[in-house]
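User: I'm new to structure prediction. If I give you an amino acid sequence, what do you actually give back? Let's try with this one:
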Amino acid sequence: MGDPAGIGPEISLKAFANNALYDQCRPLLIGDASVLAYYLKQHPELSLTLNVIEEPSEGKYVYGIIDLIDLNLIDMHTFEIGKVSEAGGDAAFQYVKTVIELALAKKIDATVTNPLNKEAMNAAGHHYAGHTEIYADLTGTEKYTMMLADGNLRVVHVSTHVSLREACDRATKQRVLDVIRIADKACKDLGIENPRVAVAGLNPHCGENGLFGQEEILEINPAVEAAKAEGINVYGSLPADTLFSKANGGMYDIVVAMYHDQGHIPLKLLGFVYDQAAQKWAAVEGVNITLNLPIIRTSVDHGTAFDQAGHWTASEASLENAIDYAIRLAENTKQTQI
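Assistant: Good question. You get back a string of structure tokens that encode the predicted 3D arrangement of the chain. For your 338 residues, that looks like this:
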């Protein structure tokens, strides 16, 4: 459900109000009944009811009924929507912890997360940089990466939530090679038989043969050559200022970005559309996927939007995209296992 003070509860209800969801999967929500009931009381037009259960096997999974595992952590008599709080941060963490445990126990096929607030979560004593790091820690995963996806554009990252100075140091041959391998496997898990993996340079113009930096020569290009020797269909390093347009146009199936903003900015430029005339977001789309975990995890590609929370204006498009990706990954995983 995400941080209960953010837009997660709202967009969850909007997604569950789409009866097409039940044609695709058996959706289960982890969160707080008190928060969801608060919104449902304000919006009776949704015609949704809550079915509180303890185990996924107890769900009804029919349209009009939201099967919910209620952690009962929030008291709506004192809790404030749209505010950073320890209570909200702790609840968001506990929802994620619960869904990871269910997936590890193979009681569910995939997990989809709504946004949490890093400040609130850390204030509650859960010291993680974000969802990705929680999943890696609680599943015991050492080699992982974040993938963002919107339409034809898929981006994975060599580093994410670190300073730009540290990101340069993390662009090592081994890490770049690990992420190339993860990117190749992720595309195959999505049903792409022979993925075309493009690797971005770290420096302007990929360093211009060492004129603007040595990282391409010493670390990135050797990783690309090593991946080619393993049979991966990989290209690079390539100048980042043109690479993402090529990938969005269909020249490549996935891009390996060297750091957080290098990958996030082009993806969100495509998926986030602001309508100046209407003074609101016309679209907030895109999916965040943590790769190389023992379980499936997808997520919305936006934050808690505390300024929108409670106004019933948030778009559920990114959440629906994340659910679609989770279903696709789960189906392909089952086919591979068979």
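You can read the tokens as a compact description of the fold. Here is one thing that stands out. The mean pLDDT is 93.
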